[in-house]
């Protein structure tokens, strides 16, 4: 497309199990969708860009792609559809009973668009306008507990037409399966020994250092460089048993509580139970306080 601007991108942390959802290629539609594996369901995130003053057919093509995703959803799956839909002449009103926004005033040519959205059971949840008082970025979802807030921009200068938004998906407990600790480790069984030999052979080993420390540093640097160039790495990840919002202190007192409980089960002494009870009270207080801070933030 010969024009400036536009484009869609979704960045996913490489510790999350995710994949791109494939669609038929359409040159005049800028749309992307990713699938993220959660604990008990899939989370689909789709992003659209529709240029200003686009023909209604472009909107309907986007909706057809969104419909393909929705039709593949299982009852427990979640979907979030967001992007620059460029619907500047739409007035939104909050439905206080359900917490989402419905269009109350819009051009007649948008009627088919909103009817399609309603049929897909998607609800709009953004009311933050830009500096011109227009809402160009729409956020649709198929479940509750989604909240949208204005946040500080990550990149400056900020686009005056698109304020930076923070989206709370409300699935902290569900997403704990994605809390992986990712490390890179060398896979020595896949070493390229020919390359390793060539690298080591290319160095002059007549090291001229007046002290042993300088000689050792030079040798280590050569060996590390050779390993870096000839030995591939792979991600070594494991799942954490804790939710992503657990901090080190909370993990520490949880382990202490569990240890005291084991002691009490073995001894069945009142004093051991009192120690366990106090640790449990401290753990529950700290956990609730931390969760409350996260909800307020």
Properties at a glance:
297 residues; alpha+beta; 6-stranded mixed sheet; two-stranded antiparallel sheet
List the helices and strands and how they pair.
Layout (H helix, E strand, L loop, with lengths): L17 E3 L9 E8 L4 E8 L6 H16 L6 E7 L6 E5 L4 E6 L5 H9 L3 E2 L12 E5 L5 E4 L14 E4 L11 E7 L6 H10 L9 H19 L2 E7 L8 H20 L2 H27 L1
Parallel strand pairs: 3-4
Antiparallel strand pairs: 1-2, 2-3, 4-8, 5-6, 7-8, 9-10, 11-12
Helix pairs in contact: 1-2, 3-4, 5-6
Q: Tally of extended strands?
A: 12
Class from secondary-structure proportions = alpha+beta
Helix content: 25-40%
Largest sheet: 6 strands, mixed
> What is the typical, i.e. mean, pLDDT?
80
Distance between the termini: 41 Å
* Helix-strand sequence: EEEHEEEHEEEEEHHEHH
Beta-sheet strand percentage? Answer: 15-25%
Query: Runs with pLDDT <50, length 5+?
Result: 172-181
* Number of helical segments with 4 or more residues: 6
């Amino acid at each position: 497309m010969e024009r400036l601007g536009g484009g869609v991108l979704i960045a996913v942390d490489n510790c999350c199990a995710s994949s791109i959802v494939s669609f038929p290629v359409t040159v005049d539609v800028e749309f992307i969708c990713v699938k993220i594996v959660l604990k008990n369901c899939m989370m689909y995130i789709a992003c659209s860009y529709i240029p200003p003053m686009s023909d209604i057919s472009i909107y309907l093509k986007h909706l057809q792609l969104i419909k393909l995703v929705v039709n593949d959803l299982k009852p427990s799956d979640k979907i979030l559809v967001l992007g620059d839909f460029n619907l500047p002449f739409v007035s939104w009103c909050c439905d206080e009973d359900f917490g989402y926004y419905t269009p109350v005033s819009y051009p007649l040519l948008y009627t088919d668009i909103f009817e399609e959205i309603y049929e897909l059971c998607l609800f709009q949840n953004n009311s933050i306008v830009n500096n011109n008082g227009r809402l160009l970025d729409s956020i649709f979802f198929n479940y509750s507990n989604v909240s949208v807030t204005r946040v500080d921009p990550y990149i400056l200068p900020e686009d005056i037409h698109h304020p930076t938004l923070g989206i709370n998906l409300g699935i902290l407990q569900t997403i704990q399966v994605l809390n992986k600790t990712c490390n890179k480790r060398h896979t020595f069984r896949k070493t390229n020994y020919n390359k390793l030999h060539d690298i080591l052979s290319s160095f002059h080993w007549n090291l001229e250092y007046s002290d042993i420390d300088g000689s050792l540093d030079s040798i280590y640097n050569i060996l590390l460089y050779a390993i870096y160039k000839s030995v591939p790495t792979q991600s070594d990840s494991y799942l954490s048993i804790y939710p992503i919002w657990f901090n080190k202190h909370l993990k520490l007192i949880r382990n202490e509580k569990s240890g005291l409980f084991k002691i009490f089960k073995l001894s069945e002494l009142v004093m051991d139970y009192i120690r366990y009870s106090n640790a449990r009270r401290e753990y529950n207080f700290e956990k609730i306080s931390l969760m409350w801070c996260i909800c307020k933030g």
